[in-house]
Design brief:
Number of domains: 1
CATH architecture: 3-Layer(aba) Sandwich
CATH class: Alpha Beta
Order of helices and strands: EHHHEEHEHEH
Number of helices: 6
Radius of gyration: 16 Å
Structural class: alpha+beta
CATH superfamily: Gcn5-related N-acetyltransferase (GNAT)
Number of strands: 5
Oligomer: single chain
CATH topology: Aminopeptidase
Length: 151
């Protein structure tokens, strides 16, 4: 297995994984060719030094997983850096093989390498299996998250 920074050619695979569950189907627009807004978002992410869009390749070079790390500079914690992990997905035919744990272990190590003092995430309350998975990895439900959607 190989972790690497995502390339433009990976974008259809990434969006396909993001759209491949009940919640993703309701918020993504996976079609080929991909809508331009995905191309622009990819460009914005790759040009931002505080963003890392990562893919996991199998030994055949196929993209089978993805995640995004964001490094957020704060004044709190004495000017500390927080790492935010989002959009963790494993291709449907590769789920249940322990790859999610492998991806999180890689992300934890990467966050530590970048000097982050913590790795945080949010997850939808409609995903109880994901919540259990994160708890099993050592994540604690220490805060109550809230969101205000626009549109």
């Amino acid at each position: 297995m190989k972790f690497r920074v995502a390339q433009t050619s990976d974008l259809p695979n990434i969006i396909g994984m993001l759209a491949d569950d009940k919640l993703g189907q309701s918020r993504e627009n996976f079609q080929l060719p991909l809508p331009q807004n995905y191309q622009q978002a990819f460009k914005n992410i790759t040009e931002d030094k505080n963003q890392e869009l990562i893919v996991l390749e199998d030994p055949n070079g196929e993209v089978i997983g993805t995640l995004q790390l964001t490094f957020i500079q704060y004044l709190t914690y004495q000017g500390g850096i927080r790492a935010q992990i989002e959009a963790v997905r494993i291709r449907k035919d590769k789920r249940g093989l322990g790859l999610g744990k492998t991806m999180f272990n890689w992300a934890i190590k990467r966050a530590q390498e970048k000097g982050a003092h913590l790795l945080q995430l949010t997850t939808d309350k409609k995903r109880p299996e994901a919540i259990k998975f994160y708890k099993d990895l050592g994540f604690n439900q220490s805060h109550e998250g809230m969101k205000l959607h626009f549109g």
